[in-house]
Amino acid sequence: MFKAVIFDVDGTLSETEEVHRKAFNQTFAEQKLDWNWDKALYRKLLRVTGGKERMRFYMEEHEPERLKRDDVQDFIRALHQRKTALYTEMVAAGQAVLRPGVREFIARLVEQGFRLAISTTTSVPNIEALIASTYGADGLAMFDAVCGGDTVAHKKPAPDIYLQALEKLGLAGGECLAIEDSRNGLLSAVRAGIPTVVSPCFYTDDQEFDEAVLLTDDLLSVDLAAVFAASQSENCSTP
Ligand code: XBP
Ligand code: MG
User: Fold this and answer.
1) Which residues' Cβ are closer than 6 Å to ligand 1?
2) pTM as predicted
């Protein structure tokens, strides 16, 4: 049976991307940039994981000249620092809540003795803010491994952030189950050899999830024994 469940954060634990989008847009407005990421554009930009990488992707199409400046790296880093400050303030103010069923699902896992971990692209302060606002100051203690943001060179869909979690847990991929919302996250986990349940969110409901061991919109309905059996029998082809 699985020994640990590894959770993605944005879109999985909480529908946080609307708060990220708001923090990005407020940062751009403060800096007098006429960049306004509406929902339709943000859905497209979410194909790129990582806020700094996402802004660079946006500039490639909308402000290629600015990318040629010597200070572009510092420019992006400064924007991202301000965005993260705004995002964590918004989360601390209660603007991000757990998705339906997540709290009960995690409580059930803890009760049944599963170890828990986090593997996310989002910045570590964002993880801390979300867990503190939804579980209190000691919330992170539930997780044996918390892996996020720039601690890896290659973000999702590369496997790095999930491989980091496996190393910290001291477990093999097949001993764990990943819970994701997006194709980038699914590919990252499967490439790390981890069977993955996908629960799509608002921004990922149009994506493909063929490599998932199970697709669901209700984590509480997941039969872990059946998922484990399916994961053992499937030849998890690494895409
Ligand atoms: C989602 C991401 C992150 C967030 C923004 O991460 O791709 O980039 O959109 O957070 P995941 P940052 O689904 O893996 O939790 O601006 O801190 O990157
Ligand atoms: Mg996600």
Assistant:
1) 8-11, 17, 20, 49-51, 84, 120-123, 126, 149, 156, 182, 185
2) 0.97
